[in-house]
Amino acid sequence: MKFKYGKYVPSLADEVDMEELVSALSELLLSSGFQSPYGDGSLDGDRTMQALHDAILDALLNGGLLPDDVLEQLFGEQAETAKQQLDELVQQIMARMEEAGYITPSPELDEERQRRAQAGGGSGEGEPGQTKFEVTDKALDFLGYRALRDLLGSIGHASAGRHDTRDMATGVDASGAPKPYEFGDTLNLDASATVLNAVTRAHRDGAAGPKVEIGYEDLMVAQGEYQSSCATVIMLDCSHSMILYGEDRFTPAKQVAMALSQLIRTQYPGDTLHVVLFHDSAEEIPLRELGRVRVGPYYTNTREGLKLARRILERQRKDMRQIIMITDGKPSAITQPDGRVYKNAFGLDPIVIRETFSEVSACAKAGILINTFMLARDYDLVAFVRRVASMCRGKAYFTTPQSLGQYVLMDYLDKKTRTIH
């Protein structure tokens, strides 16, 4: 069989770094409903092929993804020609994203293309229309990695090891001064210190000779830093307020959780991470679905979220168990014994607060820390969070969507929450 080779013709799409493009599109790919017309998470207006087309075009023109000489080449032509070339370039990039496995178009896209072809619109590859697309697991995993890299770089950590505490143990990795052997220690002998003890004792007792006799009292063991394991539940407030008031607070929270998941998977394989969403009620979601989650109903059922997180952590046999709660609102709902949800969004309802603090107390008795990251500074919320911190020896952080990731990762890496004795 004969092969016929042709001359390679470079494409403008080859000038675009696909990974940089996906990073630039992270706001769209991880959107939580903030851009929908009614400010809720029920509509997918920002997950259409047209929205993707516009976002790619904006990234090409304003994101520095195309070299200056390429942009000059494009806009050096007539306006109509430049517009046509840009549109063709965006279509090629969308096709490359699909081929690379970053997005999957809805089946409706093929039907739309067929309708256009039948209507005399050619192949139907023109305007992308209002058909939807889905973000793949590959894209979400990559965005988690990039979020982790950016966050670690911003807080000055080039790499991360395991969780170090102030306690010393007789493990295999020696990093501390040797100590006399005691019953129960790992027999990780420090040979030089042990022999030196034996020689020193022989000279002291006047029994020095050609042979060195090592006794029980001469044994020295090497000390290593005690490296703990940690079980973490991230509680994400996905109530309606997380996308209101002109700011998307839920998407940065998702990015932080994805970065933390990437960190644990690559650097702390002995740790566990679970994600609990709380709104009118609460539910655990798989980590792989985190990037696709959107805001939910209106109220904030903190008690139900804490109860579910506590049940998850009580099953974990770890040295440290903690809840990382990210919220922008005070508790405004509880689930009653009969399953009905009692709601009151005005002020601190005594019934809601009493039941919520009861659950905080249950977490404290179980040895679970609660670290709260507040995305708002409402007086009632501040008062509630401070009491939570005092009850469970946790910490309360006043932060913003822009600095949330740095606070969460620094707290996790430095492990200031608990010292293991």
Instruction: Assign the structural class, choosing from mainly alpha, mainly beta, alpha/beta, alpha+beta, or little secondary structure.
Output: alpha/beta
State the fourth-level CATH superfamily of the largest domain. Answer: von Willebrand factor, type A domain
Instruction: Output the number of helix runs.
Output: 13
Level-1 CATH class name of the largest domain: Alpha Beta
Q: What proportion strand?
A: 15-25%
CATH topology of the largest domain: Rossmann fold
Helix percentage range: 40-55%
| Count of the separate structural domains | 3
CATH architecture descriptor name of the largest domain: 3-Layer(aba) Sandwich
Major β-sheet annotation: 6 strands, mixed
| General form | flat
Overall average pLDDT: 77
The unreliable regions are: 36-43, 122-127, 157-175, 416-421
How would you describe the overall organization of this protein?
With 421 residues, the protein is α/β, with parallel strands linked by helices. It has three domains: 12-135, no CATH class; 165-227, no CATH class; 229-414, Rossmann fold (3-Layer(aba) Sandwich), CATH 3.40.50. It has helices at residues 18-24, 26-29, 49-62, 68-75, 79-100, 107-118, 137-154, 191-205, 250-267, 302-314, 350-365, 379-392, 404-414; strands at 103-105, 133-135, 163-169, 176-180, 220-228, 230-237, 272-278, 282-285, 320-327, 333-335, 341-343, 369-374, 396-398. Strand 10 and strand 11 (341-343) form a beta hairpin. Helix 10 runs parallel beside helix 11 (350-365) and helix 11 packs parallel to helix 12. The protein is flat, with a radius of gyration of 29 Å. The model is unreliable at 36-43, 122-127, 157-175 and 416-421 (pLDDT under 50).
